[in-house]
Amino acid sequence: MESIVNKVANSGLITINLEDFYNKNQRVIFDIKDCLFMGLILKEKDFREFVKNNDWSVYQNKNVAITCSADAIVPTWAYMLIGSKISEIANHFVFGNIEQLENSLFQKSLSEINIELYRNQKIVIKGCGNIPVPVFAYTEILRLLQPVASSIMYGEPCSTVPVYKKK
């Protein structure tokens, strides 16, 4: 009787699951539209008073997207002022929407990878899971690892799609 050989286990493939880089802290939006006079104008004195007296603790350890959903002209310094308060207590913040926040969180996590661990390795980027991983994360991991990997595939070790192979 022939023994069963697990070819996947013996292939030397390294599987990277991008879910492992998912930041679990809550995501929230700070919409500056709520600070606008008549939903159109930012009054500096009133805005500075709001920033000074607002309870910023609600953003403790959260990931925050700072945006303005109103069709208004908001000076750049206003976003910076909000950012200066949120940065003191939030886990992470960006100017933009939730998608941009998610991309930034993945970029931050993936930038901490020691790419030398993947030098000349065959890598599979796991393709499906329980947490929605943005396309950005897949392209970012490719960008980081392509210079060092011998090959990069997408999917599961038993069923992959070749993406890159060193020449």
Structural description of this entry:
- The chain is of the alpha/beta class and 167 residues long.
- It has two domains: 13-23 and 105-165, no CATH class; 27-90, no CATH class.
- It is 27% helix and 22% strand.
- The protein is built from four helices and seven strands, in the order E-E-H-E-H-E-H-E-H-E-E.
- It has helices at residues 44-53, 76-86, 98-110, 135-145; strands at residues 13-16, 27-31, 63-67, 92-95, 122-126, 151-156, 159-165.
- The strands form two sheets. A four-stranded mixed β-sheet has the order 1-5-6-7, covered by helices on one side. The chain has a three-stranded parallel β-sheet with strand order 2-3-4, with helices on both faces.
- Helix 1 links the parallel strand 2 (27-31) and strand 3.
- The radius of gyration is 22 Å and the shape is elongated.
- The model is unreliable at 5-10 (pLDDT under 50).
